[in-house]
Amino acid sequence: MKSLLLTLTFLLSMATLATAQKQDKHAELPGSEEVSEARVADLTRQMCNQLHLNEAQYIRLRAANRIKLARLDEIQWQYKGEPAQQHAKIAELEAQYEAECSRILTPSQLSVLRDQQQRDSVPTPPANEGGIG
């Protein structure tokens, strides 16, 4: 009986240690393992509404968005002290993402996506430039 209790205690302590080590890994590399499903769902839903995706496109684009967001978080964390390197890696990621989108979307959907990305990247000027009132 004592040996059974001792064995269970030992296994429980090993499981606790394994969990603690796994949590340390997540603390070391935040965002690299898992992306918020809400972020992925929001991004994919917005794209679905704009591009009128079918179900197969939605599923494939959701997977691509999950990978993109995870990699984006990783790049931002990994290169936070090196802005030039960070921008280069993000540009590379965007090129890979656009290539994946070109495999998923139709040419007309891809055109709408590019137009939307251009509008998002160009800042809109303030409505009241340089005057009082």
From TrEMBL:
Residues 112-133 are annotated as: Disordered. Keywords: Signal. Residues 1-20 form the signal peptide. Residues 112-121 have a biased composition (Polar residues). It comes from the Bacteria. This is Uncharacterized protein. It comes from Hymenobacter metallicola. The lineage of its organism: Bacteria, Pseudomonadati, Bacteroidota, Cytophagia, Cytophagales.
